[in-house]
Amino acid sequence: MILRKGNTLLLERGAALVSSAAVVGRKEGEGPLADSFDRIVRDPYAGQKSWEKAESELQKQAVTLALQKANLPANEIDVMLSGDLINQCTPSCYAAAPLGIPMLGLFGACSTAAESLALGSLMVESGAAEHALCLTSSHFCTAERQFRTPLAYGGQRSPTAQWTVTGAGAFVLAKEGALKIKGVCIGRPVDMGVRDVSNMGAAMAPAACDTLTRFFRDTGKAPCDFDLILTGDLGSIGHRIVGEQMSSQGLPLGERYEDCGLLVYDVKRQDMHAGGSGCGCSAVVLAGHVISKMKQGLYSNVLLAGTGALMSPMSLQQGDAIVGIAHLIWLSTC
Amino acid sequence: MILRKGNTLLLERGAALVSSAAVVGRKEGEGPLADSFDRIVRDPYAGQKSWEKAESELQKQAVTLALQKANLPANEIDVMLSGDLINQCTPSCYAAAPLGIPMLGLFGACSTAAESLALGSLMVESGAAEHALCLTSSHFCTAERQFRTPLAYGGQRSPTAQWTVTGAGAFVLAKEGALKIKGVCIGRPVDMGVRDVSNMGAAMAPAACDTLTRFFRDTGKAPCDFDLILTGDLGSIGHRIVGEQMSSQGLPLGERYEDCGLLVYDVKRQDMHAGGSGCGCSAVVLAGHVISKMKQGLYSNVLLAGTGALMSPMSLQQGDAIVGIAHLIWLSTC
Q: How far is B189 from B228, CA to CA, in rounded Å?
């Protein structure tokens, strides 16, 4: 049963996150969360002939691991929900093709992990799916090539720039399980006129505030009701903006507020500027670190506001601003 | 209540299609369905500075009209589901931004209209949304620039090539209404190794057959139970393949089988080669022609298998084939 409270959807029974897998690249494997990942693939080509095929390969490996952990064959998955940053979501499409599972393609930029879990959990709760598979990826090299400059330029990065995470996260949802998605708040596109492609955090922060504020208003809950409140990939700039803005709205998030882009790397030691980003960022931090802490009983209630920047190099060249969006899921072991 | 029968989802109550609007370009307005469209925008720029902004403008106009017809303000829409063909779905993102409606971005290539209606109807049926807005577009000029060659080349088109429809279709779904979506079958990606970007119909046809076959198997229904069976945008080549393949599987579709890409243009008179294509193709044919015929009582039960080609220019350059997908919705006035 799904209860609508304003813009927030509460899942009476809850969709269980029964397994997850995170497959990451070398830099992520050298970061502070290395031990929480299932596999570290050091070759940026992952044994493939192109970076795009490598990104697809990371997805395939993450699916295989997540299905193994859930002890489910692919043909028992009723639907997969997947997407990525690359034009026409080809890494996801080519990863899905050999599986033979009904597939819904999503585009939510870096919010895709949260978008897929939001929709997947609604489908499980409503009985539209017995098992749903949510899958997302990003790759530093495919994203740089597409959104910024050819890697061989060795262009200098601005201090506000973020580093696209190389990694894929896969999640299996089912009816029964200890760790549940209990609520969903779908993001609204928010355009604050930010045009700096090297400062995505600032562009996405207002959308994160919009979604968090709506969720707290709709549910009557407060930040202190949660052990961890996470944004997807705002990095240091966006994280500071959200902290300040939520405080000024009377909803201080406090120490429990973290950002996946700041968790995934040791930003100073690894020289990652403003932190990590990309669809894979929140996917692998959730699939690895967060879920393992929840299973250990360290966190009982967690909010993830997966953030995305809706834009393309062409739209920026044509003078459009970066539109932010943030989809929220509420995870609980209670 | 959603009933799962194999891969098919039956909506016990059904999600009502309470309004729709189709806004199209000049060529579509010169075709045989001209009278069924709400607005014909003859300027390919639609008064904007770029074709991409024009595509976004067509979406905005379609939404405005669909909301007017449904007599609903934007803030009574709980969720919008939208997408298009352009990199990072920017026409949809920028059309959504001013509306302030929670938005789920989709990527299903030309199957997006059916994908959005499938997901939207599941959300209404399950109570996740009281009102859902489904929105899709394509534009000949944005698609040619992105997928093929600069228009100024004036490149010769192959006889198997299709013409991307310039148009946007918007649909409002609600609980109560005479015309309902009663079933959904989510597509599986099908890779048959077709690599000819000028023959998308052949690449997508096997996916249409896969989805139609699964729907008939799951429901025990036969083609003769429907007044009209439509594929999204297979054009003449794909239409012929589907007709032959379904017959060889013992499910002849007969005269009731049509394709939106063949309906939208007078293919011979307008010299459209294999017919129309693009996300907007099935969207405007459904929003205009099909729904008006259903309202007139000429059709009671209609199947739409929205077809999509999952690929990008880069994936083809890297040697990948075109993966087809087809999402099915069952519309009924019974």
A: 24
What would the pLDDT profile of B281-332 be if each residue is shown by its tens digit?
A: 999 999 999 999 999 999 999 999 999 999 999 999 999 999 999 999 999 9
A301 CB-near residues (< 8 Å, 6+ apart)? A225, A226, A227, A228, A330, A331, A332, A333, A334
Of the options 3.40.47.40, 3.40.50.620, 3.50.50.60, 3.60.40.10, the CATH number for the domain spanning B12-174: 3.40.47.40
For the domain made up of A2-174, the CATH class stated in words is alpha beta
Closest residue to B94, CB basis, from A4, A78, A323: A323
**Separation between Cα atoms, residue B25 and residue B31, nearest integer Å:** 10
Cβ neighbours of B90 in A, within 8 Å: 310-312, 314-315, 320
Largest CA distance in chain A: 53
Asked if ipTM goes beyond 0.85, one says yes
- CB of A102 closer than 8 Å to CB of A123: no
Domain B180-332: CATH superfamily is Stage V sporulation protein AD (3.40.47.40)
**Dihedral angle sign, alpha carbons of residues A323, B109, B104, A146:** negative
**pLDDT (tens digit per residue) in B247-272:** 999 999 999 999 999 999 999 999 99
Can you tell me the distance from the alpha carbon of B86 to that of A254, in angstroms, rounded to the nearest whole number?
Answer: 40
Residues from chain A contacting residue B104 (CB–CB below 8 Å) = 106, 108, 115, 119, 186
Cα separation of B242 and B195, whole Å? 18
Query: B206: which 2 tokens?
Result: 């096997």
What per-residue string of b and e applies to A174-188 under the rule 16 or more CB within 10 Å gives b?
Answer: bbebebbbbbbbbbb
For chain A, state the CA radius of gyration.
18
Which chain B residues are closer than 8 Å to A106 by Cβ?
A: 104-107
Q: What is the pLDDT of residues A56-99, one digit of tens each?
A: 999 999 999 999 999 999 999 999 999 999 999 999 999 999 99
C-alpha span between B210 and B3 (Å, rounded): 21
The per-residue pLDDT of chain A, averaged, comes to 97
Q: Which secondary structure element, helix H or strand E, spans residue A20, and what is its range?
A: strand A8-24
What pLDDT, on the 0 to 100 scale, is given for residue A149?
Answer: 86
